[in-house]
What we know:
- This protein is of the alpha/beta class and 303 residues long.
- It has helices at 3-16, 19-26, 30-44, 60-84, 100-117, 169-175, 224-232, 242-251, 280-292; strands at residues 49-51, 56-58, 92-98, 121-127, 141-146, 153-161, 163-167, 189-192, 200-204, 210-214, 217-221, 238-241, 255-256, 266-273.
- Helix 1 (3-16) packs across helix 4 (60-84).
- The longest helix has 25 residues, at 60-84.
- The radius of gyration is 24 Å and the shape is elongated.
Amino acid sequence: MDRLRALEVFVEVVRREGFARAADALDTSPANVTRYISDLEAHLQTRLLNRSSRKMSLTSSGEALFERAKSILDDVAEAEAIVSSATMQPLGVLRINAPLSFGVLHLAPLWAKFMKKYPDVQLDVALIDRVVDIVEEGYDMAIRISRAGSASNVARKLATSRNILCAAPSYIAEHGMPLQPSDLLRHRCIGYSYAATADEWQMLDAQNQPHAVRVACVMHTNNGDTARSAALGGLGVIWQPSFLVGADLRAGDLVQVLPDFHMPDIDVLAVYPSRRHLSAKVRVMIDFLVEEFAGTPPWDRVD
């Protein structure tokens, strides 16, 4: 039995949540996938997967092997990259998780440039707004939008984004411009479901003194683009990062509300597991993004 190949097949079965999908990803047959898993279980003398007609799950032995096997395969891929190229060109699949709106607006335009520079790296990009466990869910790295950083992973700052209160000119014409944070109590607001402070909007004045207002939201959404579209339609006041609404503010389609107050900035972070060696493919991706977002980030640039 080719043990390394068996580990590769096992990891792919877990990641793809099925034998048939793993076979497609590995360009082989489901029968071959089944044989590799059976041989691996026989060699280790333990069951790795609980299988039924409807679902598949890892045994405790399978969970332990999955984490170790991922690390082994990453180390092998990096070693192959080092010995196969005099330029130490990174290679292999790079699995990235990123937030939906940021990924579409500011990462998607960069992927072609990256892959031209590193043609031996294949990107597997998943856009998900919820915070994922990058080790548990099989990602090499993630892009996070956060004030707090990451407690369980290494994080490198790529850029900063401002949080901005804003509304459409049509809404302001109909309902008036708030002059103080407390004025928001009388306004229609659009809430972001993943906000750490829920419907309590926190902002700072020019002296950095805090002001908190528990607003009444006429709508909640877990997606920034949905909140932005509702605000553009004149529904109410939103707070969203400048990477999402910066172009609308410059075009005048949205106007800043309470400009004498500001919400705390948020960081755009590249996050990767601290317990694993930083592979060449992750390292070059992080360096690439740092360079692309250097200086004034693209969402705050005035061309």
